[in-house]
Design brief:
Oligomer: single chain
Helix content: 10-25%
Shape: globular
Strand order of the largest sheet: 1-2-3-4-5-6-7-8
Structural class: mainly beta
Distance between the termini: 25 Å
Radius of gyration: 30 Å
């Protein structure tokens, strides 16, 4: 067993090394979110990411042979630069010294240790880029673990490097590799002054202990430092790698975790399949996904670092070349809406991005007083775009490509761009000029207090006008924020910018659980004197990026109190659970108005109606006493979706009659009687004109008519089942308790039923759980007992209606019979365990097709197995099913006892192996903790007791 120093000694030694390195690198580099050296990247929209090295297909295992084939194939630096310019990319990141590409160095190096070319490919690329205004950054890896990925091939030469250093250095260890790569950083800094910086794939402890980053700052103060998936304070840029699973799929910012003004990058593959490097395939490029990401990232001030797969000769496969040529033609007409702009709806101001009317989705970019509305997903059937205007008074709207002017309406807090009949396939861009914000109180008129604030993040940050300073709830819920207007004043809405430090939905990123640390359920109350309060809003706020609005009707108040009851994050994501940060809250007292072009199907546009003024309504008016529309058009006869917007006054019930048929009764959701709410219902229409009659006491604002959702559409929900993962039971009749929760994340559900379905040989005890209606953020829960004696797949089903259409979603509880020589088994990923800051990832060969990864390296990156039950006290064998690449260790502690180290070795991290360790257990329940505080541990699939 290797000698291990106590952790405190290691920490002290690391601290001393860092202090010494810092002194040698004086003056100490300071972590700066904003610095003049960053300006060229802040002005950029995109970069080109090139993974190209010795293992590019066809794989070479001899450095000289690879270099000969590169040169013989006609490699030319100008080709890469010219392809980057087609994408309007301002920089290239060259990833050759990469763990999966043979650790090749594309420059002549005096330092032995891995492949180094005689030809100076790096120098040629830097010179070619400089000549055409394209910056070059060099990728550097922190990771030696893939040094023997190819059987029989060792890519790291420890002996040669040890001779060079005059001491024994094992390059296959993180410390040894850190020393080697540290020297390479300095060699590159010395030899390539025109390089623009380093793109670093995670941190290495040796670099940090020896002050590498501070030394780079001192020697090359104009160079940028970027880190992948980690927010290292001294770095200029945080890069977010290959995020997927968003809706819509192109909305990459939904999965990022870094707020402005931090420089943020999205690095992703343009080919839809295959490796980051050329693997011999000419993979498809999804134009809609790739263009959507490009624009959506710009709408959040995120730089798009697009990975293309250069072949050995440097050329790109045909489908990537075709995409580059497409972008070279498609981008120029709208380049001014993307380049040197900022994302709108965040700290730089601007209208609200995200989900708009009738299924439309898009982003905002800003250039001075001009805002660009990018419609990436067009409306399903409507010829208009309707989005929150955030108080900006619009003066004109034109098509950025054609210059065509569009009619528009402003009312109720919305801008509606009307009469749009031609949509670009990928991005329809409207240039919107404004005269600034109106109807919003300046920050100087507001003071803020809170019931809880974290140290250094007081409530005053809510209204200080500075987005980098934010208020932090300090983990307390419910939490209350009170805005003081200093005297009674009119108020109609709140505009809330939450800190964009979390994704918008529950997800996993490299096995680590993430979730949305944004407001879910809230209440708003107002008061004249601070003692007597009136509630004016109670709802759930959507988990979305950018500014969010709470309309409170026409109020006269000195004090406005926002009570946050909870956030969207679940307990499975401890980093975000129970956390809330808010940058700014603004108070609006009036909506901008431009009423000369009415929005279609406004109730007040129908002749003979009784019109009521309504500041929050579309058209700034509603109709009382009912309304009859006599010309509701349908292209063909059939079923349609009617959206009815009205004020929830009186009993909130309205009747809807179509073409003289039987009336349908609808009940509006409760809310503020000054603020309209919308409900959807199916209606039957005939081809051509239809008569639609609405009766009831609630004032009607407007209607929209469109197609029903497709059969494939299912509203976004979050369903959790406990326990998750395979449930292992003993032979004979067994009982398993299961519970399930369903949360509605978007849209609305009716006639909801939640219940298990008993498979053959099993029974269910407990009734189904039902709800007549679920609205945003609402949850239903149930618990049942399953009894049986065979292996089974038990589905937990949810059935519901959306606009009259039936739907079903399901999750399965797999129950398996454990082997007779095992008295206990449990999956590592089971929800019965505690995994701290570790995470769950898919694993095809693993039991249950999942495992726990990111174990080790910190105190809470562990798996704790509670309730490990055995019949009698005694000595047992603990079996650990794992995957690993290299040599790593677990530490196993039983009932908080002294740990036992378990060291394992393998290659590839893809084959499940089993090791064992003797343990002593008490009769009844026990707790087993598997961890490694100081170093990374193997991935864990399952444990068993025998």
């Amino acid at each position: 067993m290797a000698l291990r120093l106590p952790r405190i000694i290691l920490l002290v030694l690391a601290l001393l090394a860092t202090l010494l390195a810092t002194v040698s690198a004086s003056p100490t580099a300071r972590a700066e979110v904003e610095n003049p050296r960053q300006q060229w990247l802040r002005d950029s929209t995109a970069g080109l990411f090139l993974h190209w090295g010795m293992f590019t297909a066809p794989r070479h295992t001899d450095c000289a042979a690879w270099e000969r084939d590169v040169t013989a194939g006609g490699w030319n630096a100008d080709y890469w630069v010219d392809e980057a310019l087609k994408l309007h990319a301002s920089y290239i990141v060259l990833a050759t010294f990469h763990s999966r590409l043979g650790y090749a160095r594309p420059w002549p190096s005096k330092i032995p240790g891995s492949c180094s070319t005689q030809r100076d490919f790096l120098g040629e690329l830097v010179a070619a880029g400089k000549a055409k205004g394209v910056h070059v950054l060099l990728y550097m890896t922190d990771d030696p673990q893939w040094h023997n990925e190819v059987p029989g091939v060792e890519t790291l030469d420890s002996a040669a490097y040890s001779a060079y250093k005059g001491q024994q250095v094992d390059l296959t260890t993180r410390q040894g590799f850190g020393m080697y790569s540290y020297d390479l950083f300095h060699e590159v800094m010395d030899d390539y002054p025109d390089l623009s910086g380093f793109w670093i794939d995670n941190d290495n402890e040796y670099w940090e202990q020896h002050g590498l980053y501070e030394q780079i700052r001192q020697q090359r103060p104009s160079w940028l430092l970027s880190n992948n998936n980690e927010d290292t304070p001294i770095m200029d840029t945080v890069s977010n790698e290959q995020k997927t699973g968003m809706t819509p799929a192109y909305d990459y910012p939904q999965a990022t975790f870094t707020p402005m003004p931090r420089l943020t990058e999205a690095d992703y593959k343009l080919p839809t399949s295959g490796q980051w490097w050329y693997d011999g395939s000419d993979s498809k490029v999804d134009y809609g996904l790739s263009v959507g990401r490009y624009v959506a990232n710009a709408g959040s001030s995120i730089k798009s670092l697009m990975a293309e797969t250069a072949m050995v000769n440097g050329k790109f496969p045909p489908q990537q070349v075709a995409f580059n040529n497409f972008m070279a033609d498609w981008l120029p007409p709208i380049a001014s809406s993307l380049e040197k702009t900022q994302g709108g709806g965040y700290m730089y101001g601007g209208m609200q991005p995200g989900f708009w009317n009738d299924g439309a989705h898009g982003v905002i970019t800003l250039a001075g007083t001009t805002q660009y509305v990018h419609v990436l997903t067009k409306p399903v059937s409507q010829d208009l775009i309707r989005l929150r205007d955030n108080g900006y008074r619009v003066t004109s709207v034109t098509d950025e490509r054609t210059g065509k002017q569009f009619r528009f309406n402003q009312s109720g807090g919305y801008l509606s761009i009307l009469g749009v009949t031609a949509w670009d396939t990928y991005d329809t861009v409207f240039k919107v000029t404004t005269a600034g914000q109106t109807g919003v109180y300046p920050n100087s008129m507001l003071e803020a207090t809170a019931s809880s604030s974290a140290a250094g993040h007081p409530a005053s940050a809510l209204v200080d006008g500075s987005y980098p300073s934010y208020w932090d709830a300090d983990g307390k819920f419910p939490v209350s924020m009170t805005l003081d207007l200093k005297q009674p004043r009119p108020a109609t809405y709140l505009a809330v910018n939450q800190t964009e430090w979390s994704p918008t939905h529950a997800r996993e990123s490299f096995g680590r659980p993430e979730d949305s640390a944004r407001i879910k359920d809230y209440k708003v109350s107002v008061s004249i004197d601070g003692r007597h309060w009136k509630q004016v809003s109670a709802a759930a706020m959507p988990s979305r990026r950018g500014v969010q609005f709470i309309d409170i009707g026409n109020q006269l108040a000195r004090y406005i109190k926002l009570d946050v009851l909870n956030t969207w994050a679940g307990a499975q994501s401890p980093t975000y659970f129970g956390k809330l940060k808010i940058d700014e809250i603004r108070v609006g007292y009036a909506y901008p108005q431009a009423l000369h072009n009415p929005v279609p199907l406004e109730a007040e546009s129908v002749p003979g109606t009784h019109v009521l003024k309504c500041a929050a309504c579309s058209g700034s008016a509603a109709v009382v006493g009912g309304v009859t529309y006599r010309n509701v058009q349908a292209s063909t006869a059939g079923s349609y979706k009617l959206e009815l917007t009205a004020l929830p006054t009186h009993d909130r019930t309205l009747s809807v009659r179509t073409n003289g048929g039987a009336p349908a009764q609808v009940t509006l959701d409760p809310g503020n009687a000054d603020v309209p709410t919308t409900i959807a219902l199916p209606v039957q229409l005939q081809a051509g004109a239809n008569v639609l009659q609405i009766k009831g006491d609630s004032p009607v604002d407007r209607i929209t008519v469109g197609p029903l959702p497709p059969a494939s559409y299912v509203p976004k929900t979050t369903m959790t089942v406990q326990p998750s993962g395979i449930v292992w039971v003993g032979p004979g009749q067994q009982s398993v308790t299961v519970s399930a929760n369903l949360r509605l994340d978007e849209d609305a559900l009716d006639n909801v039923t939640l219940a298990p379905t008993a498979p053959a040989g099993w029974t269910v005890t407990g009734a189904p759980v039902t709800a007549s209606r679920l609205r945003l953020g609402q949850v239903i829960s149930g618990t049942w007992t399953l009894t049986g004696s065979t292996a089974a797949q038990v589905p937990i089903d949810v059935t519901f209606d959306t606009v009259g259409l039936p739907h079903k979603i399901s999750k399965t509880v797999p129950i398996q019979i454990r082997p007779t020589d095992r008295i206990f088994m449990r999956e590592a990923e089971s929800s019965l365990n505690q995994i701290g800051s570790a995470g769950i990832t898919n694993c095809g060969p693993c039991s249950g097709a999942q495992k726990v990864r990111n174990l080790g390296g910190s105190d809470d990156a562990h798996v704790v197995f509670p309730d490990v039950t055995v019949p009698t006290e005694g000595d047992y064998t603990l079996y650990l099913d794992y995957t690993v690449n290299g040599t790593k260790s677990y530490f196993v502690s039983v009932n908080n006892g002294s740990p036992t180290e378990v060291s394992v070795t393998d290659i590839g991290n893809s084959t499940v192996r089993t090791t064992s360790v003797p343990i002593h257990l008490a009769a009844g329940t026990n707790t087993i903790r598997i961890y490694n505080t100081n170093d990374s541990a193997p991935d864990l699939d399952r444990i068993a007791i025998g």
